[in-house]
């Protein structure tokens, strides 16, 4: 019998340092890729706080430290995103940025595929427009 624990996506990704790279690259792409103009317009000019919030949320969501919950309580993702008009176009822009950011960091194909599916489900759940 093996006592090796299965690693969380957070650990497989590389922990906090790699997650920070992913989040920063995501926002860098969002701010510079014209295909993401719709979601970029939903954010303020200074993305420092929102970068930190996404990093903190993804830390716990991926099985690492529950930084967001410790600071802000339950994420209530849908409720927090209700003030924004999110349809398929916005979902797809968000995914474009995240998938591009993931392609630029060294992660296994299996983890990338798992995360792409998980991000799609979560991003699709945020839609509040047809």
UniProtKB/TrEMBL annotation:
Q: Which molecular function terms from Gene Ontology are attached? A: heme binding; metal ion binding; oxygen binding; oxygen carrier activity
Alphabetized, the UniProt keywords read: Heme, Iron, Metal-binding, Transport
Spell out the coiled coil positions from the record: none
> Has keyword Cell division?
no
What CDD domains has UniProt attached to this entry?
Answer: TrHb2_PhHbO-like_O
Quote the Gene3D superfamilies the UniProt record gives.
Globins
Keyword Amino-acid biosynthesis: yes or no?
no
InterPro entries documented for this protein: GlbO/GLB3-like, Globin-like_sf, Globin/Proto, Hemoglobin_trunc
Q: Which family does it belong to?
A: Belongs to the truncated hemoglobin family. Group II subfamily.
- What is this protein's name? Group II truncated hemoglobin
